Amino acid sequence: MHNEIERKFLFDGDIMTLVNIMIHAESVDIEDYYFNEYTRYRWIDDKCWVGIKSAGDLVRTEEECMLAVTPDKDEYLPRLRKKRFKVFYEGHTFEINVYKDIILATVEVELERADEEVILPPWCGVEVTSNEKYKNYTLWGELGNNGGDNTVSESSENSELNE
C-alpha cells in the first residue's frame, strides 16, 4: 500500500479550452463500479483493477491490483464513466476528468507531499478535495437516483463551463 496525496478542483475553463485539451491531450476511458466507499473495480480498455482506498481527503492509503481475469462490465451497474485527459503544467501532471453520465468536469493533481507547492493552471476552479459531494463514490451513488437531473448542483461551488 502507498499514500495517495491528491488535490481535486472543479474545471473552470471555457468550452474552447476544454475542446483544445480534448483534442491535444493524452486520454483514456475509465469506468468505475463501487462495492462500498473504499473498494472499486476500475476498467481501462480491456483490463480491470481492484482498488482499495482508506478514508480521508488530501492523503489516503491506496492499493491497486490488476485482475488476472477481467469481470464482465455488464454485471456491474451502474458504472461511473469518465474520460481522463493528462495535461502537464508547471512541473505537475493534471488529470481532467470529463464525466459521461453527469454534467461535470474535475481536475486532479497528485503530489509527492501534502505541503507541496503547486502552480495551478488557469482552468482550475474551486478546490473540492474535502467536499464529499465530489468524491467519486458519491457521484457513482447518484447515477440513476437523481430523478433524471444529470447535474451536480445545489451549491455555488459548482461552476458550469462558460460558453
How do the strands and helices of this protein lay out in sequence?
Blueprint: E1 2-11, H1 15-24, E2 26-34, E3 39-44, E4 47-53, E5 59-66, E6 80-89, E7 92-99, E8 105-111, E9 124-127, H2 136-142
Antiparallel strand pairs: 1-5, 1-8, 1-9, 2-3, 2-6, 3-4, 4-5, 6-7, 7-8
List keywords for this structure.
globular; Hypothetical Protein Pfu-838710-001; 9 strands
Quick description:
The protein is mostly beta strands and 163 residues long. Helix content is 10%, strand content 42%.
Q: Can you tell me about this structure?
A:
With 163 residues, the protein is mainly beta. The protein has one domain: Hypothetical Protein Pfu-838710-001. It is built from 2 helices and 9 strands. It has helices at residues 15-24, 136-142, and strands at residues 2-11, 26-34, 39-44, 47-53, 59-66, 80-89, 92-99, 105-111, 124-127. It has an 8-stranded antiparallel β-barrel with strand order 1-5-4-3-2-6-7-8. Strand 6 (80-89) and strand 7 (92-99) form a beta hairpin. The protein is globular. The protein starts with a strand and ends in a 21-residue tail after the last helix.
Architecture, according to CATH? Beta Barrel
Helix content: 10-25%
The CATH superfamily name is Hypothetical Protein Pfu-838710-001
Quaternary state reads: single chain
CATH class: Mainly Beta
Strand order of the largest sheet: 1-5-4-3-2-6-7-8
Beta-strand percentage range: 35-45%
Radius of gyration in whole Å, from Cα?
16 Å
Structural class: mainly beta
Domain tally: 1
What CATH calls the topology is: Hypothetical Protein Pfu-838710-001
Distance between the termini: 42 Å
| Major sheet characteristics | 8 strands, antiparallel, barrel
Summarize model confidence as the mean pLDDT.
89
Instruction: Summarize the helix and strand pattern as letters.
Output: EHEEEEEEEEH
Number of strands: 9
- How would you describe the shape? globular
